């Protein structure tokens, strides 16, 4: 029987690239009135051939490194925290005696995003207790457990095992993890009161993005009694290995850059493999244009990630968490170009060179994507999106602003 958790201000950070042989990275510690999580590398990690800086603001040095901002963890460690939904589940089902950032890091468990792990012990990797990932036949029970959490109701032990947060990129959306067909998937559900079948719309949006030539994570629409869940295949797992990944938020902050698409394109130029930089930058440009044209204004920097390969270079992850916001706000979360965050093709083209593109090449890319996005109704209908949901989306995707931009882009070529 596991002993009750006792709060502590120091824990161990581990490298789980090969989960069979965890390697201790260093110590994470609460500082600044327990409002920040700092990191100090272990001497063995600093001397090891496999040791590397987890992010650019965590250089390989024997010193405590602290975040500049309270209520965050330092550098790449911040991406090992649970998202908003994960925090909600931890508060409801773990109920630890203290809830500092360190508790959130610890109770995020063994299946968190990326390849980092948190342990109470220094000589052995001992994560928070958890069970094996549920299989597809647990979907209905998982959905019921999610419903109870959203209602603030208690869950039983079986439901607890279905919800223990294997933390992923994202925000407040209800989610869990599932092992299906030999792979790990993030299962995302609608929020209570959603008028749209958001998971199915996300699945359809990802298929539309794929038709635009964008590299997207594999998705599946999973039928529920009244709507759907969407399964998103994890990109930080490959052939039994865990891949180190950092959000664009962490990567840009570590580099001292603003949260913008052009800035991320230039960061790829520095961190990416030289042979792949142009391809990666063009890929990012396509995603930015696609997000503008489908009214995906929730394209914040935590919805983009960089994945580290064995050679130490980084590449942008497959696209994930992509769907219309259906709000027509006119502004993207990340900076687009010379007009700041403005959601316009003109703004996207204004700094095309930052993506390694000439204006002509960028304009042709826009036209190609606009041509595909113009067929969004056909794609969404083929995915089974409801007529009522199509009508809501059409107000924005086929509204004067976005349709006008599509037509202008297509007519220009």
How would you sum up this structure in a few lines?
The protein has 413 residues and is of the alpha+beta class.
Polypeptide structure, described:
It is a single chain. The mean pLDDT is 94. The longest helix is centred in the C-terminal third of the chain and has 17 residues, at 277-293. Helix 9 crosses helix 11 (359-373). The chain is built from 14 helices and 14 strands. The strands form 4 sheets. A 5-stranded mixed beta sheet has the order 4-3-2-1-5. With 413 residues, the protein is an alpha+beta fold. The chain has helices at residues 43-47, 84-94, 101-107, 139-150, 157-163, 198-211, 248-254, 261-271, 277-293, 345-349, 359-373, 376-382, 387-397, 400-412; strands at 10-15, 23-31, 36-41, 72-73, 116-119, 175-180, 183-188, 219-223, 228-233, 237-238, 241-242, 245-247, 305-308, 314-316. Helix content is 34%, strand content 15%. The chain starts with 9 loop residues before the first strand and ends with a helix. It has 3 domains: 10-119, no CATH class; 136-233, Phosphorylase Kinase, domain 1, CATH 3.30.200; 242-412, Phosphatidylinositol 3-kinase Catalytic Subunit, Chain A, Domain 5 (Orthogonal Bundle), CATH 1.10.1070.
Summarize this structure as a short list of keywords or feature phrases.
Phosphorylase Kinase, domain 1, four-stranded antiparallel beta sheet, 413 residues, 14 strands, five-stranded mixed beta sheet, single chain, alpha+beta, 15% strand, Phosphatidylinositol 3-kinase Catalytic Subunit, Chain A, Domain 5
């Amino acid at each position: 029987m596991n002993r009750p958790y006792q709060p502590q201000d120091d824990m161990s950070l581990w490298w789980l690239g090969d989960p069979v042989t965890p390697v201790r990275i260093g110590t994470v510690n609460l500082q600044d009135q327990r409002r920040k999580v700092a990191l100090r590398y272990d001497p063995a990690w600093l001397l090891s051939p496999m040791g590397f800086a987890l992010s650019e603001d965590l250089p390989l040095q024997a010193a405590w490194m602290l975040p500049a901002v309270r209520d965050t963890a330092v550098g790449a460690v911040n991406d090992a925290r649970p998202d908003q939904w994960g925090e909600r589940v931890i508060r409801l089902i773990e109920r630890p005696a203290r809830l500092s950032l360190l508790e959130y890091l610890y109770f995020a468990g063994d299946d968190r995003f990326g390849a980092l792990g948190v342990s109470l012990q220094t000589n052995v990797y001992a994560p928070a207790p958890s069970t094996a990932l549920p299989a597809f036949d647990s979907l209905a029970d998982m959905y019921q457990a999610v419903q109870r959490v959203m209602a603030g109701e208690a869950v039983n032990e079986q439901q607890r095992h279905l919800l223990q947060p294997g933390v992923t990129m994202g925000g407040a959306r209800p989610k869990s993890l599932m092992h299906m067909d030999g792979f790990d998937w993030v299962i995302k559900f609608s929020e209570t009161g959603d008028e749209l079948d958001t998971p199915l719309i996300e699945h359809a949006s990802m298929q539309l993005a794929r038709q635009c030539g964008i590299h997207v994570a594999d998705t599946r629409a999973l039928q529920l009694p009244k709507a759907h869940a969407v399964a998103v295949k994890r990109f930080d797992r490959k052939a039994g290995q865990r891949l180190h990944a950092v959000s664009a938020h962490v990567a840009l902050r570590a580099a001292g850059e603003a949260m913008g698409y052009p800035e991320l394109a230039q960061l790829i130029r520095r961190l990416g493999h030289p042979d792949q930089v142009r391809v990666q930058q063009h890929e990012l440009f396509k995603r930015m244009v696609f997000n503008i044209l489908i009214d995906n204004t929730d394209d914040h920097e935590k919805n983009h990630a960089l994945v580290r390969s064995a050679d130490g270079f980084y590449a942008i992850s497959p696209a994930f968490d992509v769907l219309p916001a259906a709000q027509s706000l006119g502004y993207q979360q990340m900076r687009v170009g010379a007009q700041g965050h403005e959601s316009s093709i003109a703004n996207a083209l204004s700094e095309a060179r930052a993506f390694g593109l000439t204006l002509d090449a960028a304009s042709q890319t826009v036209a190609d994507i606009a041509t595909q996005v113009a067929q969004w109704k056909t794609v969404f209908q083929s995915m089974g999106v409801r007529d009522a949901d199509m009508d809501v989306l059409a107000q924005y995707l086929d509204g004067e602003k976005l349709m006008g931009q599509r037509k202008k882009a297509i007519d220009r070529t």
